[in-house]
TrEMBL record:
The keyword DNA-binding applies. Keywords: DNA-binding. This is Putative transcriptional regulator. Residues 7-61 form the HTH cro/C1-type domain.
């Protein structure tokens, strides 16, 4: 079931009009109407509110997210994902930035570089900047690159917590081996990540909220190198 179908079903099950749902979210009725016909898509803050209001998980709400994204990428379910590669990638992520791993010699002026090795596999994460940053994670096998992910992010508010971001990123899973979990909360901080596509070709974004204020955002995309 697509997002717009899910939303209509959930709203009608509660006996709500579009106006009443919009009133709860603090938005216009027209915005809700556009969501329900697939002309637009709610931001993460509203997805969280919808999830809490209807008592359903965000991944259920966005089950068919690709149908609602203008940058739609077709899923390729037939191509198996190499379990060894996914396991290695998750271990590498947890051992480097998320795990506060040591940096290696910079590959570019003023860059931050982190590396993880296991047998013939190599992972390198290199980024520039701090409060506003850009970087790339990549994988090699026998010194030949075969996968990469670029990212660009920024801190929006002083209440951002780098420790909370690392905490969320340390929960990277084999099901979503890109950044953090779909949703994670600890105290007043809430992390959310949406992925569109598959390991071979994907894009996504993550955000962190402190209470109801967005304090961080990051956009990323990547896939196989051939």
């Amino acid at each position: 079931m697509s997002f717009q179908e899910q939303l209509q079903t959930l709203r009608k099950a509660k006996g709500l009009s579009q106006e009443k749902l919009a009133e709860f979210l603090g938005i216009s009725r027209q915005a809700v109407a556009k969501w329900e016909v697939g002309h637009s898509y709610p931001d993460i803050a509203n997805l969280i509110l919808l999830s809490e209001f209807f008592k359903v998980s965000i991944d259920k709400l966005v089950n068919d997210y690709e149908e609602n994204c203008r940058l739609c990428i077709k899923e390729n379910k037939e191509k198996p994902i190499n379990e060894e590669i996914i396991t290695f990638l998750c271990k590498a992520k947890k051992a480097t930035y998320a795990g506060k791993g040591p940096e290696i010699r910079p590959s570019r002026p003023n860059s931050h570089d982190l590396e993880y090795l296991e047998g013939s596999l190599k992972y390198i994460d290199t980024y520039l900047g701090g409060e506003q940053f850009a970087g790339e994670e990549a994988l090699w096998k026998d010194e030949i690159p075969f996968w990469s992910m670029n990212y660009m992010g920024r801190v929006l508010e002083e209440r951002f917590s780098g420790s909370f971001l690392k905490e969320a990123l340390s929960l990277v899973s084999k099901e979503n081996p890109y950044r953090g979990p779909i949703i994670y909360q600890n105290g007043q901080y809430k992390y959310h990540c949406i992925i569109n596509g598959e390991f071979e070709w994907f894009q996504g974004h993550e955000e962190i909220y402190f209470e109801d204020t967005k304090v961080y955002e990051c956009f990323f995309h990547g896939g196989e190198i051939k």
